[in-house]
């Protein structure tokens, strides 16, 4: 008979590495003689109709190379706590009660919640109401300040990098400007790492608002130097400098156009108008979230999953695992969810890009 | 001293396999003691300012794995002959004269033109005016009736297949409907081969107009059977049956909406409205043209390139190489450019898909 | 209640595409309202202890991208019929009786056997004893004369092609000769298709015995032309011409050395001794069998699986599905297993390779 | 006219990321208005016959995705300084003089040497003799103590990880034990990172000598638990514990057999004898060195290349760039080459593996 029983769930947008984390939880708990219940579709599986499956080591053989999550997930539904930047909603008391009843009813001693900012906010509220919870951070955007890296990020970067390789030969053959839009509503991590590794000539990120004239200047300068193709990577949240102004059409503002059609379609039009070059926009979209995790993300996922079991063992509830300077540690969930980690404009990647003449659209 | 001199160029949209074809031309010509001039940017390189590079076997080492074309290409410019379906423009006489002067001036005895329907139409006109020309077919859409396969097609299919793999885990984790738009304005080859291999549940192609209600029925049926994700592959030229009618918004027609925003964005909205499911559209776009060619496309490109040199040797000008039932042959360019090869609804891929319960949106 | 029940099994060495075939069988049978029993570990699952699982469409979601076979397989055991080239063993009567009892006991009306030459020989013997059996050919080596292609082959070719890409940059950086050993004990299909697509300079296959001096000549000739790296692909069954003779060591013959250490290790030593160049041998081995099937192999697997269900429906037992000139058909198993399909030295791939100056070690 | 001229070379075994480093050197130097000479085949290009090419930014477009080094390299020749562990040879004075003459003759103010332990030892000797040299570390094995990571390492890990994915489906289908031999003569970094991410059940590294009985125990235990396949990753330098003893054949020792045929072939035989299971050995060999660098390695290569130009600018000769805790810094070459960085048995990867029940052959 198993001595102890824990639950695990995945919540929020899916990303590569979730299954590696689940496998590590199952293996590490199994080695301690514990039983693991996997709840289906995030916190939703904890409330009526309660849905879960008992996870055995054999069930998780071979899932480490699989994208997504075998437990299902959702970024909508009744446990949504973040409705905009900064705004936090309290979970209704009856939901919290129901979660507690479910866990008690099933004899579950602790819950491991693998999720992003919003899900960890819900986890923190549950913890404050007495649910013995441990967190595992998950954000493909790598924008959690409490940890150097989260799994999923490097898989997305790798995909961006390889996509730029694909597009570069087409751009070169046709002498085109390619505008490649990648994830990153508030931060430019994926654009920066993916653009640098993929050979981008311009990288536009939310942290560094751009000027239209500087982009056009770079394209023209490249042509003058005999480089007929230009690769531009743009984070979905990149935007022009305040006061920057590009007349799109009478009665329309650039901001409105970006909001409606996306930044890459906007730049496709503007750069063509300003330089006369053939420009093509490509939006990587959901392709960045899927696929097999890289070795880095699998290992990070497993280190996080195994460490979460360790926190449960030590009864350090309310904590979240983290990765800092090559070491696995733990931070209070409460502190982890406070702040967005933005790209530091003095980080080695930015400094390297600048030293190599890669433009951020401001110089 | 080289005994003979030939020219080679690539024209029209780029695709994987062009460089393999170029390498084969260079190697096969080199073995015969011939010299090869590669003209830059398609036919444009033949007219003032004339641009070319002399190609040696060493220059083409390692290019077989490279997407695009080392010679550059264009699908615009002065040699455009097809301006719409069926409409053909005659090349102006002075252009033809200039091409002949360039070839004579450089002492080039024959020209190998690697190109699609439009470029081969220009090639045919040049041939009729006395230019000793040999064609190599190139169309990523595989819609040339004179040949079973063209290189680039299977590389695009492979990319579609792997992209569906990436998206399937996300769709499953989130219980979503994914609508993946692929190339194919007039024919559904890429959608059919890519969709079948990538595990699509519905495949929508121009050859089989769809009904909205049948698509919604399939999504609902799958949910009823416990399959919460549905993968839909749609060719960019797919469209509803005549008379089919979906009220989009007062004063807007479905046709107009498809023309403006694309078929996948349209279906994203319609399927959500009809089924209530989360739907996400992904447009693969230019990513399908790039990247490393598959082994199949490299070999096809090399077989075509070497065979083209054979045609030059036999002075069979006005011919184009072709691949039929596992054999390399030749057809008159004139005949090759006549007809679009549409998906035969009795081909084994369609029959297999139907036998497996994959829907084409009409049943 | 299901109206009919069929069995399916995979037998012999695994290869990519088996799961696509299984999925097609399950979907196509399901659409007809049939039930499918999947027997475990090939024919072994049919005899005591009988092992099977009932396969539902949902069980086969997402397996099309998976290498190997979810049913397990074996190329050893009690149903082995081929013990060497040409030698065929009769299955003992009690085994055949047991198979028939199992099928009757479970109410199974027909059995689909997915297997290679050896497994189909066993299938034919079972058929002759009254078992209603239908075959699906499977050989990664593509050496069955009854079908143009078998699934698994192009996935192996793709892997060989990409491995040559990996090794070429190392070879070029270090100015080395690389000898890459690939599958193909009796035929050179993988070496030919993989070598051509991967940019090999020499391709050594069983069908064309080589001369040591010709190999050394090619390496030296390349160096003289400024090509310091040479890529050699060798099928495991390639061998020198009769009478060819290379003194390895006193008291040792070349043949014995090849048999013991493999052809690539042998050539590594010989080429180094004859040319003074750095030579490195790489054996791709089991890596060629695994991994995700290419789109081509997935589609071929599904076409075969669906067609096999069609044969069952038409009660054409004793037949095997086949693919010829783009069409799916059927041949008698009895005829299919008769002959090995060797590389035709006049096929377009060989002709292209020769036209490009790629050597087969004989000229 | 360019104001300043520097040289760059790559030396030692090739690895993915070298070209990214070269590109960064060229771009960063170009932005400062400097000229860059790339010497061919490592230090060999500096001595008679002197061989170099002037590198322009355009020459390095698109090389970041290319394996190997466009400058060529060698791990043999006249600049070899390390002949075994610990033994260091002094470069002869005339060689050093010739290098100095070459640099003076070409007007080169500084030399950037991208190389491993041996090459950096030569670089240090040149520096001590007055050559203005800056180092960039390169070791695919990641065993340099002065830097947390070197480029090439994660590309090799990724390859090992994906190869295990390929082999796992075959192992599972056939119920086999797979022994996969990876690089790592003195350290187990690749085996550890690659094995963990690839789902290995046992990881054997030089830092943790194994016991035969413990390996056999794990295989048997897995079978007892219903896991019929076992994946074993073994570093080429892994070895049994002292005193461990396995009778191979009369008159032969295990040590001799390992030395001759390699550790994986040895374990293939031993594990089969001890457990009766089918075992297959696969040696990844040179495939691990080649191919496209991962995004991580490209970025690390570029950060190192750009930082090396920074060191030249600051005239910090005798220094080598390094990467520690997310920051790019510099260390004295002299100190960097002192010590091998071995796997710390308390690192998070080992702790995670142990927590998950992955065995190192000692428990």
TrEMBL record, chains A, B, C, D:
<keyword id="KW-0324">Glycolysis</keyword>
<feature type="binding site">
    <location>
        <position position="117"/>
    </location>
    <ligand>
        <name>Mg(2+)</name>
    </ligand>
</feature>
<dbReference type="GO" id="GO:0005524">
    <property type="term" value="F:ATP binding"/>
</dbReference>
<feature type="binding site" description="in other chain">
    <location>
        <position position="236"/>
    </location>
    <ligand>
        <name>substrate</name>
    </ligand>
</feature>
<keyword id="KW-0547">Nucleotide-binding</keyword>
<dbReference type="GO" id="GO:0047334">
    <property type="term" value="F:diphosphate-fructose-6-phosphate 1-phosphotransferase activity"/>
</dbReference>
<dbReference type="GO" id="GO:0030388">
    <property type="term" value="P:fructose 1,6-bisphosphate metabolic process"/>
</dbReference>
<dbReference type="GO" id="GO:0048029">
    <property type="term" value="F:monosaccharide binding"/>
</dbReference>
<keyword id="KW-0808">Transferase</keyword>
<feature type="binding site">
    <location>
        <position position="176"/>
    </location>
    <ligand>
        <name>substrate</name>
    </ligand>
</feature>
<dbReference type="InterPro" id="IPR012829">
    <property type="entry name" value="Phosphofructokinase_III"/>
</dbReference>
<dbReference type="GO" id="GO:0016208">
    <property type="term" value="F:AMP binding"/>
</dbReference>
<keyword id="KW-0460">Magnesium</keyword>
<keyword id="KW-0418">Kinase</keyword>
<comment type="subunit">
    <text>Homodimer or homotetramer.</text>
</comment>
<keyword id="KW-0963">Cytoplasm</keyword>
<protein>
    <recommendedName>
        <fullName>ATP-dependent 6-phosphofructokinase</fullName>
        <ecNumber>2.7.1.11</ecNumber>
    </recommendedName>
</protein>
<comment type="pathway">
    <text>Carbohydrate degradation; glycolysis; D-glyceraldehyde 3-phosphate and glycerone phosphate from D-glucose: step 3/4.</text>
</comment>
<dbReference type="InterPro" id="IPR022953">
    <property type="entry name" value="ATP_PFK"/>
</dbReference>
<dbReference type="InterPro" id="IPR015912">
    <property type="entry name" value="Phosphofructokinase_CS"/>
</dbReference>
<feature type="binding site">
    <location>
        <begin position="76"/>
        <end position="77"/>
    </location>
    <ligand>
        <name>ATP</name>
    </ligand>
</feature>
<feature type="binding site" description="in other chain">
    <location>
        <begin position="286"/>
        <end position="289"/>
    </location>
    <ligand>
        <name>substrate</name>
    </ligand>
</feature>
<keyword id="KW-0067">ATP-binding</keyword>
<feature type="active site" description="Proton acceptor">
    <location>
        <position position="141"/>
    </location>
</feature>
<dbReference type="InterPro" id="IPR035966">
    <property type="entry name" value="PKF_sf"/>
</dbReference>
<feature type="binding site">
    <location>
        <begin position="116"/>
        <end position="119"/>
    </location>
    <ligand>
        <name>ATP</name>
    </ligand>
</feature>
<dbReference type="GO" id="GO:0046872">
    <property type="term" value="F:metal ion binding"/>
</dbReference>
<feature type="site" description="Important for substrate specificity; cannot use PPi as phosphoryl donor">
    <location>
        <position position="118"/>
    </location>
</feature>
<dbReference type="GO" id="GO:0003872">
    <property type="term" value="F:6-phosphofructokinase activity"/>
</dbReference>
<feature type="binding site" description="in other chain">
    <location>
        <begin position="139"/>
        <end position="141"/>
    </location>
    <ligand>
        <name>substrate</name>
    </ligand>
</feature>
<dbReference type="GO" id="GO:0005945">
    <property type="term" value="C:6-phosphofructokinase complex"/>
</dbReference>
<comment type="similarity">
    <text>Belongs to the phosphofructokinase type A (PFKA) family. Mixed-substrate PFK group III subfamily.</text>
</comment>
<dbReference type="GO" id="GO:0042802">
    <property type="term" value="F:identical protein binding"/>
</dbReference>
<feature type="binding site">
    <location>
        <position position="280"/>
    </location>
    <ligand>
        <name>substrate</name>
    </ligand>
</feature>
<feature type="domain" description="Phosphofructokinase">
    <location>
        <begin position="5"/>
        <end position="311"/>
    </location>
</feature>
<dbReference type="Pfam" id="PF00365">
    <property type="entry name" value="PFK"/>
</dbReference>
<dbReference type="InterPro" id="IPR000023">
    <property type="entry name" value="Phosphofructokinase_dom"/>
</dbReference>
<comment type="function">
    <text>Catalyzes the phosphorylation of D-fructose 6-phosphate to fructose 1,6-bisphosphate by ATP, the first committing step of glycolysis.</text>
</comment>
<dbReference type="GO" id="GO:0070095">
    <property type="term" value="F:fructose-6-phosphate binding"/>
</dbReference>
<feature type="binding site">
    <location>
        <position position="13"/>
    </location>
    <ligand>
        <name>ATP</name>
    </ligand>
</feature>
<keyword id="KW-0479">Metal-binding</keyword>
<dbReference type="InterPro" id="IPR012003">
    <property type="entry name" value="ATP_PFK_prok-type"/>
</dbReference>
């Amino acid at each position: 008979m198993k001595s102890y029983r824990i639950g695990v769930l995945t919540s929020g947008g899916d990303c590569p590495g979730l299954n590696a984390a689940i496998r590590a939880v199952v293996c590490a708990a199994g080695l301690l003689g514990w039983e693991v219940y996997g709840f289906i579709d995030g916190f939703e599986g904890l409330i009526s109709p309660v849905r879960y499956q008992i996870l055995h080591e054999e069930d998780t053989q071979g899932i480490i190379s699989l994208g997504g999550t075998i437990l299902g997930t959702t970024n909508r539904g009744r446990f949504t706590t973040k409705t905009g930047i900064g705004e936090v909603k309290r979970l209704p008391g009856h939901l919290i009660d129901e979660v507690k009843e479910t866990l008690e009813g099933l004899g579950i001693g602790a819950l491991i919640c693998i999720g992003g900012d919003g899900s960890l906010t819900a986890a923190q509220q549950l913890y404050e109401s007495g649910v013995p919870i441990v967190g595992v951070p998950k954000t493909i955007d790598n924008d959690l300040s409490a940890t150097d890296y989260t799994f999923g990020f490097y898989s997305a970067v790798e995909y961006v990098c390889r996509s730029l390789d694909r597009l570069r030969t087409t751009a070169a053959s046709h002498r085109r400007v390619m505008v490649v839009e990648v994830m990153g509503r508030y931060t430019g991590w994926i654009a920066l790492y993916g653009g640098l590794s993929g050979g981008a000539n311009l990288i536009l990120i939310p942290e560094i608002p751009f000027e239209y004239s500087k982009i056009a200047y770079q394209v023209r300068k490249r042509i003058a130097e005999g480089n007929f193709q230009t690769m531009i990577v743009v984070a979905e949240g990149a935007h022009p400098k305040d006061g920057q102004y590009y007349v799109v059409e009478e009665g329309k503002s650039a901001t409105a156009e970006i909001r409606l059609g996306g930044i890459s379609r906007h730049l496709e039009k503007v750069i063509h108008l300003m330089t006369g070059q053939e420009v093509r926009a490509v939006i990587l979209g959901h392709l960045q979230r899927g696929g097999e995790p890289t070795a880095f993300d699998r290992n990070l996922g497993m280190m996080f999953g195994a460490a979460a079991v360790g926190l449960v063992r030590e009864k350090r509830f309310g904590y979240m695992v983290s990765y800092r300077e090559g070491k696995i540690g733990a931070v209070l969930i409460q502190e982890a969810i406070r702040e967005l980690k933005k790209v530091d404009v003095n980080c080695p990647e930015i400094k390297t890009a600048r030293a190599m003449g890669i433009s951020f659209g401001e110089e």
